[in-house]
């Protein structure tokens, strides 16, 4: 299963193609639109989200709500394009009028300067339009489709926020996916600890007033994956590495860890390894999950736990020092309309790319041509594991 996205932030639309998705899956478009709305939400977002109302259009690979096994073609329109139709016109040749709003003062921390150097652009709008996290809307749509497949296979996952700036909003005891979902729906920060909401709102308001930005940490928990997905046999077959690459591939993610991650390095082996249990009714299991459901690059049957650290948003309203691309004068960096923090939408994006990577692994491990066959194979495999 492969996917591609195309489209610029203020261009006409985002386009996606998902190839290799099983036939016979009934897709719920409302569920996709709910995920898209969740990605647009969250405290600390900028004004762009007041303009957009992301809606999925499925224009290939689906008939009467059921996937055909052919490539799924997806579209999300950029409503803001109406205000940028001349500047972002794909067809008309450049004129002095339609090349206004040039970007020549690269923002530290964004893709502007390195992207301009690589592609030879002197108007850095040519970089920022695609490096913008607007593109993650399409990854969320594709992720939601993959999440629906996983649900049909009895696998559930959720992404939530465990830290915003320096405020940790984590719970001490590990929770089940349904319990996490219940808690995070109660606030606009996707955090479990409700008593921290006001503190975090205040922090975001204060940071916004100061023209500054915030990052944070996200966790994704996946339940009911069978043991043995991925492989220890070669480096590029390790599923934990694939999940880490997918999470790191999300804009502004600077760190990814599995389970206790970096904290495990400071602990003793006896505190980190998850004791093995066997019970006649359920088969093999563990009494803890410090290793986040992975041993040898393979799932071990425990919940998979992926953590991702997001840096603060690089565009600051209190603009950082930069250098003009054309004059080499020291100037303030360009300021594009921006989020104060995007940790909440990023949690939906990370959840989505984890769902895509898991769906890719499962459809590569078993016959992924058709949902029913996939379900039968997975049920038989789970039974085999129980009796191992
Ligand atoms: C959902 C989401 C929203 C974002 N919003 C902004 C934004 O408003 N302004 C900004 O400068 N960066 C924003 N970013 C981060 C930039 O897209 C990112 O820092 C940039 O593409 C450079 O890539 P890198 O940080 O991975 O190196 C956002 C990221 C995500 C995931
Ligand atoms: C458009 C989205 O996020 C954008 C991501 C982004 C960036 O630099 O990554 C910069 C801002 O772009 P704009 O100037 O259009 O407001 C964000 O709004 C979105 O998430 O839908």
From TrEMBL:
Residues binding NADP(+), per UniProt: 39, 45
UniProt KW Electron transport keyword: no
InterPro entries: Chorismate_synth, Chorismate_synth_AroC_sf, Chorismate_synthase_CS
Pathway: Metabolic intermediate biosynthesis; chorismate biosynthesis; chorismate from D-erythrose 4-phosphate and phosphoenolpyruvate: step 7/7
One GO CC annotation: cytosol
EC numbers, comma separated: 4.2.3.5
PROSITE patterns, sorted: CHORISMATE_SYNTHASE_1, CHORISMATE_SYNTHASE_2
Catalytic activity: 5-O-(1-carboxyvinyl)-3-phosphoshikimate = chorismate + phosphate
A GO MF term: FMN binding
Enzyme class: lyase
Residues involved in FMN binding: 130-132, 251-252, 296, 311-315, 337
Required cofactor(s): FMNH2
UniProt cross-references to CDD domains, sorted A to Z: Chorismate_synthase (cd07304)
UniProt-listed GO biological process terms: amino acid biosynthetic process; aromatic amino acid family biosynthetic process; chorismate biosynthetic process
Subunit structure: Homotetramer.
Family: Belongs to the chorismate synthase family.
Role of this protein: This reaction introduces a second double bond into the aromatic ring system.
Protein's recorded name: Chorismate synthase
Species, as recorded: Liquorilactobacillus ghanensis DSM 18630
Lineage per the UniProt record: Bacteria, Bacillati, Bacillota, Bacilli, Lactobacillales
Gene this chain is encoded by: aroC
């Amino acid at each position: 299963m492969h996917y591609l996205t195309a489209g610029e932030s203020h261009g006409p639309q985002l386009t996606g193609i998902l190839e290799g998705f099983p036939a016979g899956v009934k897709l719920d478009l409302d569920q996709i639109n709910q995920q898209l709305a969740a990605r647009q939400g969250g405290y600390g977002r900028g004004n762009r989200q007041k303009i957009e109302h992301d809606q999925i259009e499925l224009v290939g690979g689906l008939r009467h709500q059921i996937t055909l096994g052919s490539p799924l073609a997806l579209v999300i329109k950029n409503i803001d394009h109406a205000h940028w139709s001349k500047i972002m016109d794909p067809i008309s040749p450049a004129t002095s009028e339609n090349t206004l709003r040039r970007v020549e003062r690269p923002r530290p921390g964004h893709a502007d300067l390195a992207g301009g150097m690589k592609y030879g652009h002197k108007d850095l709008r040519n970089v920022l339009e695609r490096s913008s996290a607007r593109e993650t809307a399409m990854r969320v749509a594709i992720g939601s489709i993959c999440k629906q497949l996983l649900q049909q296979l009895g696998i559930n996952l959720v992404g939530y926020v465990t830290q915003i700036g320096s405020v940790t909003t984590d719970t001490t005891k590990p929770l089940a996916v349904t319990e996490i979902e219940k808690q995070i729906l109660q606030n606009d920060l996707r955090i479990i600890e409700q008593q921290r909401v006001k503190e975090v709102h205040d922090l975001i308001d204060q940071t916004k007033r100061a023209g500054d930005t915030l990052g944070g940490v996200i966790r994704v928990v996946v339940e009911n994956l069978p043991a043995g997905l991925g492989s220890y046999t070669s480096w590029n077959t390790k599923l934990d590495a694939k999940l880490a690459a997918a999470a790191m591939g999300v804009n502004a993610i600077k760190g990814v860890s599995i389970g206790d991650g970096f904290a495990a390095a400071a602990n003793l082996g006896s505190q980190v390894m998850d004791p093995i249990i066997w019970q006649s009714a359920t088969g093999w299991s563990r009494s803890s999950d410090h290793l986040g459901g992975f041993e040898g690059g393979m799932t071990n049957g425990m919940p998979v736990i992926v953590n991702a650290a997001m840096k603060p948003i690089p565009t600051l309203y209190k603009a950082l020092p930069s250098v003009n691309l054309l004059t080499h004068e020291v100037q303030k960096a360009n300021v594009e309309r921006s989020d104060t923090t995007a940790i909440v939408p990023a949690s939906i994006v990370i959840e989505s790319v984890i769902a895509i990577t898991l769906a890719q692994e499962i459809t590569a491990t078993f016959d992924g041509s058709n949902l029913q066959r996939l379900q039968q194979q997975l049920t038989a495999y789970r039974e085999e594991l129980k009796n191992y």
